[in-house]
Amino acid sequence: MSKGTILITGASAGLGAEMARQFAALGYDLGLCARRTAKMEALREEITAAHPDRRVELRALDVTDDEAVFEVFKDLAAAFGTVDRVIVNAGLGKGAALGKGRYDANRQTAMTNFVGALAQSEAAMEIFRAQERGHLVMISSMSALRGMRKAMNVYAATKAGVAAIAEGLRSERVPGLDVSVVYPGYIRSEMNEHVQQRTRFMVDTETGVRSMVAAIEKRRVRAYVPAWPWAPIGFAMRRLPLSVVRKLT
């Protein structure tokens, strides 16, 4: 028997794919969305081989295509009959210091991470309002806690915006709605696999996502993951002078 249905975007690799594996192991059916369908097909085969009772629906989706976001979310809701949780995970890590001639990269990140997240949130909320229940999960970043410099500037700003959308929905107190924001620290994923140097506090994908899944299952309003060392770091980052934060990032 299914524990419920979870829709995950950006599910072809990295954190999204690992969340799919771990939520399937917990007993959830899955609606997985991403641009790269071949990788999702392989993921579905892996999940259904390990958990034959799980239902896994796949949809090709570019979250910067507004119309497609609404169509795919509605289609999955119809296919399953209900969507219990939506995880807004699709994201992009491109970027450059402002004024360095890479507005194209910064704009692409902004459109994917913020405008795309807005479209996903709108589509999810239409479903949840109709159902009168649901759990919206926004995947933010520890970088969202303060303004970041150079190539991280726009990325951090988009992730702060995602968290603000979530807080606004919590303030609205929509009946039957739970909203969670997850702030991952350094978790190895496809987005950062090009980073060759050893990064302090970096954990492997499976370990990091296990912390994310645990926080999501508890419907935590706000979760810094893994909790150690990111919960105390998050507390400090919100309060330290910018001159100190600059040295930490």
From TrEMBL:
Keywords of this entry: Oxidoreductase
A single Gene Ontology CC term: membrane
Keyword set includes Cytoplasm: no
SUPFAM superfamilies in UniProt: NAD(P)-binding Rossmann-fold domains
InterPro entries named among the record's database cross-references: NAD(P)-bd_dom_sf (IPR036291), SDR_fam (IPR002347)
Gene3D superfamilies: NAD(P)-binding Rossmann-like Domain
Single GO MF descriptor: oxidoreductase activity
Signal peptide bounds: none
Family to which the UniProt record says this protein belongs: Belongs to the short-chain dehydrogenases/reductases (SDR) family.
Protein name: Short chain dehydrogenase
Species name: Nocardiopsis sinuspersici
